[in-house]
Design goal:
The chain is mainly α and about 140 residues long. It has 6 helices and no strands.
Length: about 140
């Protein structure tokens, strides 16, 4: 079956689901959060590009440079200020932060992840990405 992938994060989500199905829960969580970061990057850059004067855009981009992880206060506060979307007040936000911390622990300490933990991250990732994309003007 031929699948057409319209957004780069979608391929990561497909790969994450495959890792989950194969029982590779650590890899699943890492791929899920990379997908969120890709969407966050797209959304943050969109909102930064709406800022005037244009000289301020470069300064804002430097503030988040290579870190578009909305799990950091700097990135999430910038997103909220620019978009008006108070994502940190959403019901799914604590689960996102928990999954983000789990991903960091997997990456830096190599801990094992249970199937239940991976299921929780999978569900939350979809909520987070759908929310961010819904707040991205077309």
């Amino acid at each position: 079956m031929l699948m057409i992938i319209s957004q780069p994060h979608e391929q990561l989500l497909i790969s994450a689901q495959q890792q989950f199905d194969d029982g590779d829960y650590r890899e699943c969580i890492v791929l899920e959060h990379i997908a969120i970061e890709m969407v966050a990057d797209q959304v943050l850059v969109h909102w930064i590009n709406t800022v005037n004067p244009p000289g301020l855009r470069l300064w804002l981009l430097r503030q988040i440079e290579n870190n578009h992880n909305l799990g950091t206060t700097k990135a999430s506060k910038l997103y909220e200020a620019l978009s008006g979307d108070m994502v940190s007040q959403m019901d799914f936000w604590p689960a996102f932060l928990q999954g983000n911390q789990l991903r960091n622990t997997v990456m830096h300490e190599g801990i094992e992840v249970s199937k239940g933990q991976a299921e929780h991250v999978l569900a939350n990732t979809k909520q987070m990405i759908n929310h961010l994309l819904a707040h991205l003007p077309s």
